[in-house]
Amino acid sequence: MTLSVTGLHHAYGRRQVLRGVSFQVPEGALVGVVGENGAGKTTLLRILCGELTPTGGAVAHDGRLGYCPQQAVLNEAFTVAQHLRYFQVAYGLPDLRYAHELMEILNFTDYLPERVGHLSGGTRQKLNLTLAVMHDPDVLLLDEPYQGFDWETYLRFWDLAAQLRSRGRSALVISHLAHDADRLDHLHHLRAGVLRQPAAAAAGD
Ligand SMILES: Nc1ncnc2c1ncn2[C@@H]1O[C@H](COP(=O)(O)OP(=O)(O)OP(=O)(O)O)[C@@H](O)[C@H]1O
C-alpha cells in the first residue's frame, strides 16, 4: 500500500470539513476524489502532503510524494528554466532529463527562456505539473491538475498518468468533475465530509 488514510477529521474553527475520511491508494493505481466546490478536496490534499495538520486521524505513506497544488507557487520574475534549476537543486536531481521529457509530453519546451509572468494560465499549469512530477515521486497528489489545459494537453496529461501507472507509480487526482471516471482505477465522492462510492453517493441525493 502506497498511501493509507484513516479516520481523517478536519475543522476550521467550528466548520467541520472532513468527518472521518478513510481510503487507500495502492501501488500503480490512479485514484480520483470528486466533490462539489467547498466539499473539502483541497483541505484533504493539503493534509496528505503535510501542509496542514488534521484535527484527527492518520496518514501513512511509503516512498516520495509529489504535490501539484491548485494555486501554482511560481515566481513571476523567474524563467521556466530557472524554476527547473531551482527544483533540481531542491530535489537533489543529477540532471533535468526527465523534466525536459515531461515538457515535451506537455508540449511547452519552447517556453524554457520565458519569464513566468509572461506565461498563459495553461502554460503555468504545465510548469506547475512538471515541477510536481520531475523527481518521479511514488505518489502524486494532484489538485485539479488539468485546469486551463486545452483538449490536446488534457489527453497528453492522461497519457502521462497512464505511463506513470505502468511504472508502478500512483496518483490521487482531485477534481470537481466526475467525467474522468473511466480513466481511474478507483473513484470516490467527497460529500458531507465523508467519502462515498459513486453509486451510494447518487442514491443519497
Ligand atoms: N484556511 C481556511 N480557513 C477557514 N476555512 C477554510 C480554509 N480553507 C478552506 N476553508 C473552508 O473549508 C471548506 C472546504 O474548502 P476546500 O478548499 O477544501 O474545498 P474544495 O473542495 O477544494 O473546493 P473547490 O472545488 O472550490 O476548490 C470551504 O467551506 C472553505 O471555505
UniProtKB/TrEMBL annotation:
It holds the Pfam family ABC_tran. The keyword Nucleotide-binding applies. SMART domains: AAA. One of its GO terms (molecular function) is ATP binding. Residues 3-203 form the ABC transporter domain. SUPFAM superfamilies: P-loop containing nucleoside triphosphate hydrolases. It comes from the Bacteria. InterPro entries: AAA+_ATPase, ABC_transporter-like_ATP-bd, P-loop_NTPase. This is ABC transporter ATP-binding protein. It comes from Allokutzneria oryzae.
